[in-house]
């Protein structure tokens, strides 16, 4: 939207130099949702042109030393009390360090907010949406996708994923690349295709349904590339070990879109991790024997309670609540309250 507030006025407002009349005009203008995009661009441009906004460690250190010297001059009689003076100095060092860290963190967070739009889902939630290029994304529970506010439609369309998502990528006339980054060590590069990405602490998994994609990853500090074909599943464990296999149909990899859990000889220990990832519920096996039990099948569960009942009924287990967590036990070993 074209701004009816001059850019110079917005810069004065951001710098804290706007007149009361200008300040009121800007604040009224910001109440219009359509002006948000232009304002974000101005904030970013102003930040780049305003180095004084960035924390200046050297100036902060100089001001700190001046303050210490002023205290020494104001209290010469206490000059020989070295222990208290060192204590005060350490306090100033601590305050200065805290302020510098706070300013750095605030500047970083502001930059992230300005540059990226973040779409998040809570536990037990899924959401579908279109990107500005027409690509379609479905986010699984407890996941987040960061999309650039500016320049997304340039040479490379790049997004950052934490969690799990399905991507239906729109091919562009100028063959723009589409990149999904999950970390500095792993990314998926595509043109026009359908695929799912799983990126959580217990590993990364990519399933390709249609088209072609290239994986860029690191193994033993060496950068590697891998071209995937439709029907393939690639997994990368936390230690950097990569496995590749042909699974044919990839329907099971997106079962979560319909609140279904597709288990294929899946252990109870892995299901406990799935419970935490999707519902934020701490579930633990009561013994090593229970942890290694497996389940195969396709089960619908929209809540943690429904998934828990699947485990209890299929494996003939019982549940016991202990200190905010749920423990799976056999019916014979469950403890009785005293």
Please provide a written account of the structure:
Residues 118-214 form the FecR protein domain. GO terms for molecular function: sigma factor antagonist activity. Keywords: Membrane, Transmembrane, Transmembrane helix. The chain crosses the membrane at residues 92-110. There is one protein chain. It is built from 8 helices and 18 strands. The protein has 338 residues and is α+β, with helices and mostly antiparallel strands. It has 4 domains: 7-51, no CATH class; 54-115; 121-252, Jelly Rolls (Sandwich), CATH 2.60.120; 259-330, Phage tail protein beta-alpha-beta fold (3-Layer(bab) Sandwich). The chain starts with 6 loop residues before the first helix and ends in an 8-residue tail after the last strand. Mean pLDDT is 80; it is low at 51-61 and 77-88.
Care to give the gist of this entry?
The chain is of the alpha+beta class and about 350 residues long.
Strand content: 25-35%
Please give the CATH class of the largest domain.
Mainly Beta
For the termini, the CA-CA separation is 69 Å
CATH topology of the largest domain: Jelly Rolls
DSSP summary, beta strand count:
18
Number of domains: 4
Architecture of the largest domain in CATH?
A: Sandwich
SSE run: HHHHHEEEEEEEEEEEEEEHEHEHEE
Helical run tally: 8
Indicate the structural class.
Answer: alpha+beta
Largest sheet: 13 strands, mixed
Morphology call = globular
Helix proportion: 25-40%
What is the oligomer described by this structure? single chain
Question: Low-confidence stretches at least 5 residues in length (pLDDT < 50)?
Answer: 51-61, 77-88
Rg, Cα atoms, Å: 27 Å
Averaging pLDDT over every residue, what do you get? 80
GO molecular function: sigma factor antagonist activity
Domain Protein FecR C-terminal: 260-327
InterPro entries: FecR (IPR006860), FecR_C (IPR032508), Ferrdict_sens_TM (IPR012373)
Transmembrane segments: 92-110
